[in-house]
Amino acid sequence: MPLPTPPAAAHAPVGTRAPRIGLLGIMQPLYDDMIPGITEHQAAYAGRVAEKLSGVAEWTVAPPVRGRADAERAMRAFEDADLDGVLVVMLTYGPSLRVTRMFGGARLPIALANIQPDPAVSPSWDMDDMTYNQGIHGAQDTANAMVRAGLPFEVVTGEWQSPEFAGRIDRWARAARAVTALRGLRVGVFGYPMNGMGDARVDESSLLRKLGPEVEVIAPGSLHRTMAEIPGEEVADLMAWEDGAFEVDGRLSKEEREDHARMQLGIERLLEERGAGAYSTHFDAIGEDGRFARLPMAAASTLMAKGYGFAGEGDVLAASIVYAGHQLAGDGHFTEMYAMDFPSDSVLMSHMGEGNWRIAREDEPVRLIKRPLGIGGLDDPPTIVFRYRPGPATLASLVFLGGEDFRLVVAEGEVIDAPGLPSLEMPYGQFRPETGVRSCMDAWLRSGGTHHMVMNTGARAEDWKVLCSLAGIEYVRV
């Protein structure tokens, strides 16, 4: 069945909107006397490149850069426009020292497109054609300047009119969107993190400096007060939407559903007010507070489906990478490895009740159930239950190594069409790594992969690799 669309929020995260990219074309005045009109000629070429790539991003094309002042002015305009990244195109040869200062202070992810107007050298070429197509040595000079500046950047060489080139730019643009979104991310943590869980701990200053996410601790009392302020009509609207979106368990009382709905709406309101695109709750922080009747399980599932990052147990690293998964590939899903199934060469994936139902199988209903749960010591939490959709999938775990060092551990594979587990009242599925359970788990553990992670549908390892390159963190594929 088609997956439902959650009610819109006033300030919902950007989700999977098209990347917004600036195109910076570089040349120099040297050729103006030799080829009158060359600036306009190459500006038109830059416009054709942007038009050809209109299906992968929204483009802002700067006037051709012909000197240092032009370059720095164009980059400031891109940054002021809140773009996600900058694609540099050599319109002719351009001396790198005219853009070195600009790249040294660049705040947006950069890609260097090593392209030229014509795909082939032709016997009909004259000196004008040579000049129009001489971007390669400008790319070399410019790339050298970026390397010497210590600037992470991506390089894409190819025929700019080809599908392969568009595919690589699409991958880079989505990675740029994710990196830029991380740099502005705020993660709300309700209460405190789980005691003793070491792989989720991170130096918040290091995280902020290296990747950008800022941690905002939100007192449970704020949630309790906000829940009480939610208008009754908003609660009724959410429940009515759930009636149409899910198969709702008849055992759920009106009181249970209203309390859950108030909790979901309260969490979302606080995230909007605090400017947070991701959050984490810990069952003890909610349970020990004494003012809540149940844990916000169903809330986490629908807020993930709306584009928020989420992780359990106060895990800021996992919440951040789930958010990045939304930006990079869409439908980021929080999960963990529960148990290995050696006969099927797969791992049972789940968590105690939270999951992005946008990755659910389409041949089974997504259910909202009354579900007993001893963890937290509270009343039964309404829980959204589904099985993962079979097909290609990718796992990614963000690892803090100390200091300014981070690593992303990535595994590609597939969700297999395994038999159902009728007694498992949680979102779940079985993931078969492409390298096999034994090899994948050996490498995952040796690499320090955490027990919380993001799952995305599709083969996304190369997407994550580009993100790591732009963010300046280590990439390990297992």
Description:
InterPro entries: Ara_Isoase_C, AraA_central, AraA_N, AraA_N_sf, Fuc/Ara_isomerase_C, Fucose_isomerase_N/cen_sf, Lara_isomerase. This is L-fucose/L-arabinose isomerase family protein. Keywords: Arabinose catabolism, Carbohydrate metabolism, Isomerase, Manganese, Metal-binding. It holds the Pfam family AraA_N. α9 crosses α10. The strands form four sheets. A six-stranded antiparallel barrel has the order 11-12-17-16-15-18, surrounded by four helices. The chain has a five-stranded parallel sheet with strand order 2-1-3-4-5, sandwiched between helices. A hairpin with a 2-residue loop joins β15 and β16. It has 478 residues and is α/β, with parallel strands linked by helices. The chain contains 15 helices and 19 strands.
CATH class of the largest domain: Alpha Beta
Number of strands: 19
N-end to C-end Cα span: 34 Å
Structural class: alpha/beta
**Rg (C-alpha, Å):** 25 Å
Main β-sheet, spatial strand arrangement: 11-12-17-16-15-18
Q: What name is given to the CATH topology of the largest domain?
A: L-fucose Isomerase, Chain A, domain 3
Q: Indicate how many domains the architecture comprises.
A: 2
Number of helices: 15
The CATH level-2 architecture of the largest domain is identified as Alpha-Beta Barrel
InterPro entries: Ara_Isoase_C, AraA_central, AraA_N, AraA_N_sf, Fuc/Ara_isomerase_C, Fucose_isomerase_N/cen_sf, Lara_isomerase
Domain L-arabinose isomerase N-terminal: 70-181
Protein name: L-fucose/L-arabinose isomerase family protein
Keywords: Arabinose catabolism, Carbohydrate metabolism, Isomerase, Manganese, Metal-binding
